[in-house]
# Entry
Amino acid sequence: MDAQKVDMFIMTNAKYFEGHQLTFIRERLLELDDSHWMLLSTTSFQDPSTNLIISVIAGSFGVDRFLIGQVGLGIAKLLTCGGLGIWAIVDWFLIMKLTKEKNLEKIQKYMY
Amino acid sequence: MSQQHKLYVFVLLACSAGYIWLYYHISKHFSNNTIGEVCLIKSFTGFPCPSCGSTRSVVALLGGNFYEALLVNPIGYVLLSGLVIAPVWILKDLLTADSSFYNFFRSTELFLQKPQHYVPLALLVLANWVWNIAKGL
# Structure
């Protein structure tokens, strides 16, 4: 793919991924052919900061886990008062990383 | 570690925590001590969350008071069946090098990602929450 397009993608979406993954993403995207550009540019990502706010407010209901697609764990969290309150607090610190991993998974299907 | 093993370790740890919590609760229950408040929602807002009272429900179930358990919180039934079934299923999987629990978990997740399946369940939880607030758990 065109370097200019890839750089534009990286600049616009940098906050959705881990900093150390950006170089890898850029390398992989450069190797792709241009037909993937439309799909890639229309992919929507989840904002880690928004998920953190949701986790703080509604983490005890498992909403943060539901949002990143982990329905099973979300239900477990919902039915146990946020894992007796402990899991809910632990997730405040994990949810941003998990969201970024989920975003990477979303574009990985174009990369391989 | 594969996704499957991560899930198995997590579920086994969660179930152990559940059993420890239950043991702690029952021993306190027998000595007539007050029960500590762990629910974040209830501590902050004063209102019970959808699953508040599930420990009391499970304790009632273990004492054979099925109707009382249903009145306190029906979620107790789900939790107790999970606590009993999940570790046995996982141990069976580990012993036979099978992945039936993981496959069941994944297919349930896919099943619940469809709006026609998760909306009724969400409404049930919501109704239970309203009932919890009305009961003043």
